[in-house]
Amino acid sequence: MIKMPYGFSLAGWSDIRRVVSRADVVLEVIDARDPLRTRSRRLERIVEEMGRELLLVLNKSDLVPKTIVEEWVHLFRDRGYRAVYVAATRHWGTKYLRRAIKEAAPALPVITAVVGYPKTGKSSIINALKGRHSASTSPIPGSPGYTHHVQLYRVEKNILMIDTPGVIPVEGGELERIIRGQSPEQLDDPVPPAIKLIERILEYVPTAFIQAYKIRTREPIKILEELAKRRGWFYKKTKEPLIEEAARTIIRDYHRGKIPFFIKPTRTIILDMV
Questions:
Q1: CB 94 within 8 A of CB 121
Q2: Are 92 and 86 in contact (CB under 8 A)?
């Protein structure tokens, strides 16, 4: 198991199945900046196989122009998915999310589970839904599969929520793993994936590093060198810029939303959704 911040561990797929089996509605939290790369088709197949209802929650929508995130939501809905957008840390869209949960529910009261890749904001979604007036509750009588290890919260009269998020194992290539939340501390060499991330960011937002760091060059390696110089990061022996630390910083800043980035739906991207 790879240890995650705040006491969470990366769950195996058997753990994901266990979480899904305990819920009526599964909230798949995806990053509104890059929805397709942060959704999990494998999770969605599990939800379908188990006969549960799926609700796509595009989080971090405050980092994306409203017209763009609305277009993503409409695209998902046009393809038969339930979808809603929120900015959980700002408590934006919580009312609409609660309404969407009840609309997706096969019956009320409904038990929900929050699942997604690391760094998509699952805990923020849980906290936003819980709010000030939620309270822990004992398992619903007659509900199979529950033990004392499962903590349910009553979000409101007809919505209960499993308090622990399901963390999807990070899979894919070098770039995909970073976008899906792999920590830079888990990388033997953060420079190659950081370069790929920089290239992807510049492809969609050419001024991103000007806005984030006031760095004007568009060459990834020079961006790393310039950032290291400005932060005073140098190798002790050679006095060369410590680009590894700059690479880790860019990966962290991407996850924190400090680097402007979002993807507009295009015909090519839309075809990938099929």
A1: no
A2: yes
CA distance 182 to 251: 9
> Helix 243-255 crosses helix 220-231 at what angle (to 10 degrees)?
100
> Residue 164 pLDDT > 90, yes or no?
no
Q: Which two tokens stand for residue 216?
A: 């004007």
Parts of the chain belonging to CATH 1.10.1580 = 174-272
pLDDT tens digits, 117-137: 999 999 999 999 988 655 555
Q: Which residues pair with 114 in a beta bridge?
A: 27
Mean pLDDT of the chain: 89
CATH-assigned architecture of domain 174-272? Orthogonal Bundle (1.10)
> What string of DSSP letters covers 118-153?
TTS-HHHHHHHHHTTT-EEEPPPTT-TT--TT--EE
pLDDT value of residue 151: 84
Average pLDDT over residues 156-163: 93
Burial (CB count <10 Å: 0-12, 13-18, 19+), residue 231: middle
Say if strands 152-156 and 135-137 run parallel, antiparallel, or are unpaired. antiparallel
The pair of three-digit structure tokens given for residue 233, joined into one six-digit string: 């990061």
30-60 per-position pLDDT tens digit: 999 999 999 999 999 999 999 999 999 999 9
243's tokens? 């680009």
pLDDT tens per residue, range 254-271: 999 999 999 998 766 665
* 2 pLDDT higher than 50: no
DSSP 225: H
CATH architecture of 5-167: 3-Layer(aba) Sandwich (3.40)
CB 128, CB 86: distance < 8 Å: yes
